[in-house]
Amino acid sequence: MSGSTELVNLSSLLNSCITACSSHLRGCEEIIVNNLRESVQRVISHVQNEKESVQAFSEENTLTSECLMSLLTVLGDCDSILCSEILSLFNILALERSPAVLLYGLGALDTLIYLLDEHTHPLQVLNLIGKITKHIKCGAHEERVDRLLTIVTNNVLTNDMTLKPSLYTMVNLTSGSVPVQMHLRSLDRSGMLRKKILKLVCHDDNEVSIGALAALTSTGMADEFNKLNIIYHVLNISCVEYTMC
């Protein structure tokens, strides 16, 4: 049986399990939750092994994806393993730029922000947020973008485990948006964020750290040459600052 055919056949079981669980997971029979977990694991196995299955899932199961995303809001403290499995599936789909994930990207961010607030699988959640924000227009100064930017800023300062996806998301959120860049700078009145990112740039000259530093210091100019000049300027005037980090 081909991956795409198998995925279509899984739809009925998956959707019935989601429907049974959607009101509240705690009240569900264990067999229903186990069936849901098994279905998600089988889908993951297919989309990992066959790229055509990603497209099949996207075309046949967009509604299922939306239901699974909604279901995550009740999974955090009820079934951590199943929550992790669903996040793994979405991370695979987002990597392939699947419409099932990207179609409702901004709406999905509300659920993912909730999971971050609840400290539910932060590394998986931030990896997924990074992939979503790379491919959608986040808009200027929206409430959810401000909230998300506040969370990832705190993560950069306090949680090295989520440092890379936090910086990646920061760059995606601020890209091309002067209001969001201004909000980022307002979150760093103490200068601690700038110092930490500057330290990363000096130790490891990678694109994500440089992009985050540019967002913190630029005047919103999108031109790459101007951005580079800004970065070099910041590095030159920050030598003393860096040695004190």
Secondary-structure topology with pairs:
Blueprint: H1 3-21, H2 30-49, H3 51-60, H4 62-71, H5 80-95, H6 99-102, H7 105-117, H8 122-135, H9 143-158, H10 163-174, H11 178-186, H12 192-203, H13 207-217, H14 224-237, H15 239-243
Notes on the structure:
- The chain has 245 residues and is mainly α.
- It is 76% helix and 0% strand.
- The chain starts with a helix and ends with a helix.
- Mean pLDDT is 72; it is low at 239-245.
Gyration radius (Cα, Å) is 20 Å
Helical fraction: over 70%
Largest sheet: none
Q: How many domains, in number, for the residues?
A: 2
Find the count of extended strands (DSSP E, 2+ residues): 0
Q: What portion of the residues fall into strands of 2 or more residues?
A: under 5%
Overall shape: it is elongated
What structural category do the secondary elements indicate? Answer: mainly alpha
- What is the average per-residue confidence, as pLDDT, rounded to a whole number? 72
SS field, number of helical segments = 15
Q: Termini separation (Å)?
A: 59 Å
Give structural attributes.
245 residues, KIAA1524, elongated, CIP2A_N, disordered C terminus, ARM-type_fold
How would you sum up this structure in a few lines?
By secondary structure, the protein is mainly alpha-helical. 76% of the residues lie in helices and 0% in strands.
